[in-house]
TrEMBL record:
SUPFAM superfamilies with a match to the protein in the record: Subtilisin-like
Signal as UniProt keyword: yes
Keywords: Glycoprotein, Hydrolase, Protease, Serine protease, Signal
PROSITE patterns xrefs: SUBTILASE, SUBTILASE_ASP, SUBTILASE_SER
Organism taxonomic ancestry: Eukaryota, Viridiplantae, Streptophyta, Embryophyta, Tracheophyta
Signal sequence, start to end: 1-21
CDD domains: PA_subtilisin_like (cd02120), Peptidases_S8_3 (cd04852)
Main localisation: secreted
Domain Inhibitor I9: start-end pairs: 31-103
Protein name (database record): Subtilisin-like protease SBT2.5 isoform X1
Length: 804
């Protein structure tokens, strides 16, 4: 998500309900799902699959030609691989009415616009010492695995994506993607082996009138920067020098430097459209990607059972059915509860954490006091103290002065008063945002300020602002001070050294300061903590105002202050124009960290299902930070103990995830069973969305889905939950189950101890009994301790509604 530092989540607006007889006549693009089989459900391969695909496309054309006048519509896409359908552009109400009554159509969804809201981490995760060596070194880590990214494209000229391996390209097995060359910065040789394929999808964007060919580019080239950033985090080359604004910030590496990248550009500077994204997902799976990384999600927290049945969620379910692991950003709506935007159990949903690297800047006041703040900033002239001027004291003295305090516009200021000074801009914590800093920088430059200080208004402070401003790569000296101590000290110093007339006009600016160089990293050895912006669980509410018994997020990964590749032609971030690297924060940055680590797991275990990889990531995750303390979460007034609704199963632990001991697997039919027992979802809705009905024999609860967590949103008395574990160890192992009970819940596991052979499975019966109503979720854990040193952890999240 790209000009906003905590941004970096690209947001996808999706209608949640299937077509029920009324459509918005103002919409112009519609996604139509047919009753007929898709290529993947047709179960053919090779030439037979290609022939069937061509037949499906022809049938779409014949179907439309038989129903609608030729001048009343245009077909944008035929979706053939994961589901059978098409995207249609029409402004004819009559055409919609005809489609409404046509036989053979399962679902019609309106297309909805998407909008953007938008290194040190390999070492932080232990990859160079504990993971890469076991896979052949960094250049081979991820070799043969293809990570597909649906984003804003890629900058093929960046050194992070150069083919550094001598000799012929590595074998990438079943991948069949193509390189869609174009005149717009993307020649055919851009797909060099490291970039295995690159395509773009813009038909809906073009017919909408939003697509601007002069800067959006009808090619896979990344004119925005966000796609290059996420791609390099996942699989950028090893040890690439990071230079920005002529300053060296060290070196960057992707999580899987040896993996291959497949680009599916469906997002542009203005955003995008769902029909383009669905086409990109369909093609990525058809091409044979192993992992799909999506920094996208719905624009608002979904509600109601139909959230699980919208067309993109179904597309991603079919992708998982095809063996593709889908990793998705959980959203940047934190720290608000129930703000997760990635909610389906077949998706690996990623939360964002801080890391131990900070860019702390300092300011020295004229009285010798020194305070630490944030922002990557140039220093003021060495040894020279500059006058400080509060914004309200250098504006044209009229009614706009109070409004001028936040420095959002240059018009109110008296330029002659601010020349050569540091302007002081103030904010209340509830209205501050990183986009506000963009306006401050612009204002300071236009009015001739030498630099600026952002400080909280008198009597206010908000420590969490440090994380939202730490990625501001400023073009002039600047600092953000958010602590109460700094705020009080500043105002005491400023007021005592500012001489005013009887009518409060400043006669002399006596307070002064120096801003030091803020471009040098400090490594604290602390963290991780859940970032303040990272969206929180519980999962999406169903019709009975309960969550759907799914733990979200699934996993926590680094997302704050991440250096990665950029596109120098990007206009989306004024501080990074012309640069090859940018530092950003957001769950969009955390997501490719997980996709890259998943590629390492896939390399070592090529036959594991998506659910097994997700299970390995979750059961091996860490619940403590680097100091051994339990994980914490940033909130508006500091830190608080974190829960699974903040971090999922915990902070990602790559070395243990490669050898988890036990895994929980789930198949397509089990996801269908899950959908069939979501309260408020009927059998016909499932059949229309998935193409198959509910089984005659089904589970009783959503909580029975075989995931590496147990969530019960409405425990009435007691409930038995079933789990099936499979051994992926190399030898026989005996496990002892240790229970950490949630408050007010008695938990028993049968069997409590068991011996399991490699590749064998064991059924576990977990009895949950409510003992005390807490009016909130309480959390616990099952820990499977193996005698071969495997430790398998399963989080518990239980809401006791009745003890009966």
């Amino acid at each position: 998500m790209a000009s906003v530092p905590i941004c970096a989540l690209i947001i996808l607006c999706i209608l949640l309900a299937s077509y029920q007889g009324s459509l918005n006549v103002d919409a112009e693009v519609f996604l139509v799902v047919m009753e007929d089989e898709s290529v993947i459900s047709y179960k053919k391969s090779g030439d037979d699959a290609l022939k069937y695909k061509e037949k499906v496309i022809t049938r779409h054309d014949i179907f439309l030609e038989s129903l609608l006048p030729a001048d009343s519509y245009s077909k944008l896409y035929s979706y053939t691989h994961l589901f059978n359908g098409f995207a249609l552009h029409t402004t004819s109400r009559e055409a919609l009415e005809v489609l409404h009554s046509a036989q053979g159509i399962r679902i019609i969804h309106e297309d909805v616009k998407m909008v953007k809201m938008t290194t040190h981490s390999p070492e932080y995760l232990g990859l160079p010492t504990r993971v890469w060596p076991s896979l052949g070194g960094p250049d081979m880590a991820g070799d043969g695995v293809v990570i597909g990214l649906i984003d804003t494209g890629i900058n093929p000229n960046h050194p992070s994506f150069a083919n550094l391996k001598p000799g012929p390209p590595s074998d990438i097995g079943k991948f069949r993607g193509k390189c869609e060359s174009a005149a717009h910065e993307f020649p055919l040789n851009a797909c060099n082996g490291k970039i295995a394929g690159a395509q773009y999808f813009a038909r809906a964007a073009i017919v909408s009138g939003d697509f601007n060919a002069s800067h959006d580019f009808a090619s896979p080239f990344d004119s925005d920067g966000h796609g290059s950033h996420t791609a390099a985090i996942a699989a950028g080359n090893f040890r690439i020098p990071v230079i920005s604004n002529n300053f060296s910030y060290g070196f960057a590496s992707g999580m899987a430097p040896g993996a291959h990248i497949a680009i599916y550009k469906a997002i542009y500077s203005f955003g995008g459209y769902m029909s383009d994204v669905v086409a990109a997902v369909d093609k990525a799976v058809e091409d044979g990607v192993d992992i799909l990384s999506l920094s996208i999600g719905p624009s608002a927290v979904p509600t109601g059972p139909a959230a699980f049945l919208n067309i993109l969620e179904m597309e991603l379910l079919f992708a998982v059915k095809a063996g593709v692991l889908v990793v998705q950003a959980v959203g940047n709506g934190g720290p608000t509860p129930s703000s997760v935007l990635s909610f389906s159990p077949w998706i690996t949903s990623v939360a964002a954490s801080t890391i131990d690297r900070k860019y702390n800047n300092s300011i020295i006041f004229g009285n010798g006091q020194v305070f630490t703040g944030t922002a990557l900033s140039l220093p003021t002239q060495e040894g020279l103290f500059l006058p400080l001027a509060a914004a309200e004291d250098v504006c044209n003295w009229n009614e706009t002065c109070i409004l001028a305090r936040n420095c959002q516009r240059p018009e109110p200021f008296n330029r002659s008063l601010i020349q050569g000074k540091l302007i002081v801009c103030t904010f209340s914590d509830f209205i501050f945002s990183p986009t506000s800093v963009d306006s401050i920088v612009s204002t300071a430059q236009k009015i001739g300020a030498t630099g600026f200080v952002i400080i909280m208004a008198r009597g206010r402070s908000s420590e969490f602002l440090n994380e939202t401003t730490s990625t501001l790569n400023l073009p002039l000296p600047g600092i953000v001070l958010s602590s109460r101590e700094a705020s009080e000290a500043f105002w005491d110093y400023y007021d005592s050294h500012t001489l005013r007339s009887k009518n409060e006009v400043v006669v002399k600016f006596g307070a002064c300061a120096r801003i030091l160089d803020g471009r040098h990293a400090v490594y604290t050895g602390k963290g991780p903590s859940v970032a303040s912006y990272s969206s929180r669980g519980p999962d999406v509410n169903n019709a009975l105002m309960q969550t759907a018994d799914v733990l979200k997020p699934n996993i926590l990964a680094p997302g704050t202050s991440i250096w990665s590749a950029w596109s120098p032609t990007s206009q989306s971030d004024q501080y990074n124009i012309g640069q090859d690297f940018a530092i950003l924060s957001g769950t969009s940055m955390a997501t490719p960290h997980v996709a890259g680590v998943a590629a390492l797991i896939k390399q070592k275990h090529p036959h594991w299902s998506p659910a097994m990889i997700t299970s390995a990531l979750m059961t091996s995750a860490m619940l403590t930070d680097h100091s051994g303390e339990l994980l914490s979460a940033q909130v508006r007034d500091g830190l608080t103990p974190a829960t699974p609704f903040d971090y999922g199963a915990g902070f990602i632990n790559p070395s243990h995830a490669l050898n988890p001991g036990l895994v929980f697997d789930a198949k397509f039919r089990q996801y269908i069973q899950f959908l069939c027992v979501v309260p408020g979802v009927d059998d016909e809705s499932v059949r229309r969305a998935v193409g198959t009905g509910c089984p005659t024999v089904r589970s009783d609860w959503c909580s029975d889905l075989n995931t590496a967590s147990i969530t019960v949103s409405n425990l009435v008395g007691s409930r038995q939950v079933i789990r099936k574990v499979t051994s992926v160890g190399s030898m026989e192992e005996r496990y002892q189950v240790v229970v950490r009970e949630p408050a007010g819940v008695a938990v028993t596991v049968n069997p409590q101890a068991f011996t399991i052979q490699p590749n064998s499975s064991m059924i576990l019966k977990i009895m949950l009994e409510g003992r005390e109503i807490a009016n909130d979720y309480t959390f616990g854990e099952l820990v499977f301790n193996g005698d071969k040193n495997h430790v398998v952890k399963v989080p518990l999240a239980i809401f006791v509604s009745s003890t009966l």
